[in-house]
């Protein structure tokens, strides 16, 4: 465990400096009032009970009661402020985590287990928040109380303080062993929980339900689930056994410490009131030590989660976005000696998020090799080849989703990697084979392409995509929720939704990757007419297997094993 992790919270804590000052002030006031209670006990005994002065005893009792109530009240305020500090810091960590994930390159998402990433974004900040709130809600407060109690006890009996402090290593030494064991268990628990969440994410969705009914996998899935939760159970038992053993050790040591102080008081001839006060102060010293020890051990899982949070925050962001803008409408896109290979499995993400173990990048084959060609400006370029030839990879490179390992992709003479994200979005649009559909309304799904679009713009895009009749027949129209991953829509309807987004965005360069594969012939023909009319004058790159889809292409680029074929040519329908 990296001991510097809590220090990394400091920049976020400074952002809450005013609350921090108020929190520390409340702690000092609360601790100062708390130690007056044992001193009042001494006066009750020595000045009131021993000489028989009931009035003095009652006066000091009232003072002790008032100090205790006010101390408890101020301490409650301090704890509430500490909890708010923790919540605000955790909120900031969540925001930073999601920002970091959004800015990761495509390879990170392609190689990461979705469930593990979701766990890192949801469960890890919650556990880390427990650490932060315990630090500010318990540990700091107990630490302040311990220090003030030690100072107060020293004013009564220095020997007692020396003996109390001499026993502190007896608390700390066993904790080192317990802490190591608990951190190991915490890491195992985090890994097991992440694997369990990924398992559930894969199976508790529409695709999982379909596969389960097709292949009758209930028994297999239940057995796998039982194995995962059994592993988690064993880890939790091991962790709890260690935790409660440590609690026994610290409590026993505290009892010995109190007994030692009583003995010291008797030897030094202390008054009864002084012994009562010393015993109460020793309890104020050992109780925080016990609390800090137990809470510190209980934080092992949260500190592991905090470690995982910072592992993700330390990942570099996607370097593929520059700051340049295009001077006008984009027309020409060209590949200039482009080579690309996918990162080795597990190397573009964190080890515990990876779907596969890390490999050796040298062993990876080139997905595309030395591609040099241009799209027809304002025309249609067809990209053809057998399955696995590299067509989709080439399209993803053209869209800026992949970044070339070597070579450049140029738009009107500007390297695609140098363009800002906004310029690239305006310049290039892509309709992919797998359609991304939110569990939201049709309106929300459409406006991903153009936030703020009005109903007229949405309906025109739907009409061009041959979806207007379907939407008009829905009870809530554009506000109809399409379900998880769009399960209320057919495959063809999801494709048309994706095409509607493209019509709405109106990019200068359009990439269609099997964009009409799930459509019947009549719908496909109508869509091609809409594409030809609506996108006239724009530069198109079309990937399709049906000859009818590319029969009007101005140029055909043929790929085989990621390389250009000699038959690549130009001219309408040419090969």
From TrEMBL:
<dbReference type="InterPro" id="IPR003439">
    <property type="entry name" value="ABC_transporter-like_ATP-bd"/>
</dbReference>
<feature type="transmembrane region" description="Helical">
    <location>
        <begin position="130"/>
        <end position="152"/>
    </location>
</feature>
<dbReference type="GO" id="GO:0140359">
    <property type="term" value="F:ABC-type transporter activity"/>
</dbReference>
<protein>
    <submittedName>
        <fullName>ATP-binding cassette subfamily B protein</fullName>
    </submittedName>
</protein>
<dbReference type="GO" id="GO:0034040">
    <property type="term" value="F:ATPase-coupled lipid transmembrane transporter activity"/>
</dbReference>
<dbReference type="GO" id="GO:0005524">
    <property type="term" value="F:ATP binding"/>
</dbReference>
<dbReference type="InterPro" id="IPR036640">
    <property type="entry name" value="ABC1_TM_sf"/>
</dbReference>
<dbReference type="Pfam" id="PF00664">
    <property type="entry name" value="ABC_membrane"/>
</dbReference>
<dbReference type="InterPro" id="IPR027417">
    <property type="entry name" value="P-loop_NTPase"/>
</dbReference>
<feature type="transmembrane region" description="Helical">
    <location>
        <begin position="20"/>
        <end position="45"/>
    </location>
</feature>
<feature type="domain" description="ABC transporter">
    <location>
        <begin position="348"/>
        <end position="575"/>
    </location>
</feature>
<dbReference type="InterPro" id="IPR003593">
    <property type="entry name" value="AAA+_ATPase"/>
</dbReference>
<dbReference type="GO" id="GO:0005886">
    <property type="term" value="C:plasma membrane"/>
</dbReference>
<keyword id="KW-0547">Nucleotide-binding</keyword>
<dbReference type="InterPro" id="IPR017871">
    <property type="entry name" value="ABC_transporter-like_CS"/>
</dbReference>
<keyword id="KW-0472">Membrane</keyword>
<keyword id="KW-0812">Transmembrane</keyword>
<keyword id="KW-0067">ATP-binding</keyword>
<dbReference type="Pfam" id="PF00005">
    <property type="entry name" value="ABC_tran"/>
</dbReference>
<dbReference type="GO" id="GO:0016887">
    <property type="term" value="F:ATP hydrolysis activity"/>
</dbReference>
<feature type="transmembrane region" description="Helical">
    <location>
        <begin position="158"/>
        <end position="175"/>
    </location>
</feature>
<feature type="domain" description="ABC transmembrane type-1">
    <location>
        <begin position="26"/>
        <end position="301"/>
    </location>
</feature>
<feature type="transmembrane region" description="Helical">
    <location>
        <begin position="243"/>
        <end position="265"/>
    </location>
</feature>
<dbReference type="InterPro" id="IPR039421">
    <property type="entry name" value="Type_1_exporter"/>
</dbReference>
<keyword id="KW-1133">Transmembrane helix</keyword>
<feature type="transmembrane region" description="Helical">
    <location>
        <begin position="57"/>
        <end position="78"/>
    </location>
</feature>
<dbReference type="InterPro" id="IPR011527">
    <property type="entry name" value="ABC1_TM_dom"/>
</dbReference>
């Amino acid at each position: 465990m990296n001991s510097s992790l809590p220090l990394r919270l400091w920049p976020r804590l400074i952002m809450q400096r005013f609350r921090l000052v108020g929190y520390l002030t409340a702690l000092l006031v609360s601790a100062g009032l708390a130690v007056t209670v044992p001193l009042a006990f001494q006066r009750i005994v020595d000045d009131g009970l021993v000489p028989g002065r009931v009035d003095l005893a009652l006066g000091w009792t009232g003072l002790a009661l008032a100090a205790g109530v006010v101390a408890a009240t101020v301490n409650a305020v301090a704890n509430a402020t500490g909890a708010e500090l923790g919540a605000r810091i955790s909120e900031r960590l969540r925001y930073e985590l999601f920002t970091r994930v959004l800015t990761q390159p495509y390879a990170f998402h392609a190689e990461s287990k979705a469930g593990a990433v979701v766990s890192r974004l949801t469960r890890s900040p919650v556990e880390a928040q427990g650490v932060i709130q315990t630090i500010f809600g318990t540990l700091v407060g107990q630490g302040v109380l311990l220090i003030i109690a030690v100072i107060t006890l020293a004013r009564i009996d220095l020997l007692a303080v020396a003996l109390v402090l001499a026993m502190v290593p007896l608390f700390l030494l066993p904790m080192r062993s317990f802490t190591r064991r608990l951190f190991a268990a915490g890491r195992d628990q985090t890994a097991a929980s992440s694997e369990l969440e990924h398992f559930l994410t894969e199976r508790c969705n529409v695709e999982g339900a379909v596969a389960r009914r097709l292949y009758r996998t209930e028994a297999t899935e239940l057995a796998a689930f039982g194995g995962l939760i059994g592993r988690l159970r064993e880890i939790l038992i091991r962790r709890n056994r260690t935790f409660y053993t440590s609690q026994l050790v610290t409590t026993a040591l505290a009892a010995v410490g109190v007994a030692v102080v009583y003995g010291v008081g008797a030897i030094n001839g202390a008054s009864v009131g002084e012994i009562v006060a010393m015993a109460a102060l020793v309890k104020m010293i050992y109780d925080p030590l016990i609390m800090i020890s137990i809470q510190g051990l209980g934080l092992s899982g949260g500190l592991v989660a905090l470690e995982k949070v910072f592992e993700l925050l330390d990942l570099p962001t996607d370097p593929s976005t520059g700051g340049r803008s295009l001077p006008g409408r984009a027309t020409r896109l060209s590949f200039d000696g482009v080579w690309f290979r996918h990162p080795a499995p597990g190397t573009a993400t964190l080890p515990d998020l990876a779907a596969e173990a890390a490999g050796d990048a040298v062993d990876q084959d080139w997905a595309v090799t030395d591609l040099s060609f241009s799209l027809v400006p304002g025309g249609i370029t067809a990209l053809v080849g057998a399955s696995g030839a590299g067509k989709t990879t080439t399209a993803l490179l053209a869209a800026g989703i992949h970044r070339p390992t070597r070579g450049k992709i140029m738009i009107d003479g500007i390297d695609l990697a140098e363009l800002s994200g906004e310029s690239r979005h305006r310049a290039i649009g892509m309709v992919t084979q797998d359609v991304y559909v939110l569990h939201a309304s049709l309106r929300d799904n459409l406006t991903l392409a153009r936030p703020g679009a009005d109903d007229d713009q949405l309906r025109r895009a739907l009409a061009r995509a041959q979806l207007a009749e379907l939407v008009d027949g829905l009870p809530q129209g554009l506000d109809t929720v399409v379900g998880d991953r769009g399960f209320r829509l057919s495959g063809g309807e999801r494709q048309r939704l994706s095409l509607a987004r493209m019509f709405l965005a109106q990019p200068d360069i359009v990439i269609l990757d099997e964009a009409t594969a799930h459509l019947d012939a009549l719908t496909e023909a109508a869509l091609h007419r809409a594409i030809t009319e609506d996108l006239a004058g724009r530069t198109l790159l079309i990937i399709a297997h049906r000859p009818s889809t590319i029969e009007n292409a101005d140029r055909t680029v043929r790929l085989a094993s990621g390389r250009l074929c000699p038959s690549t040519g130009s001219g309408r329908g040419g090969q």
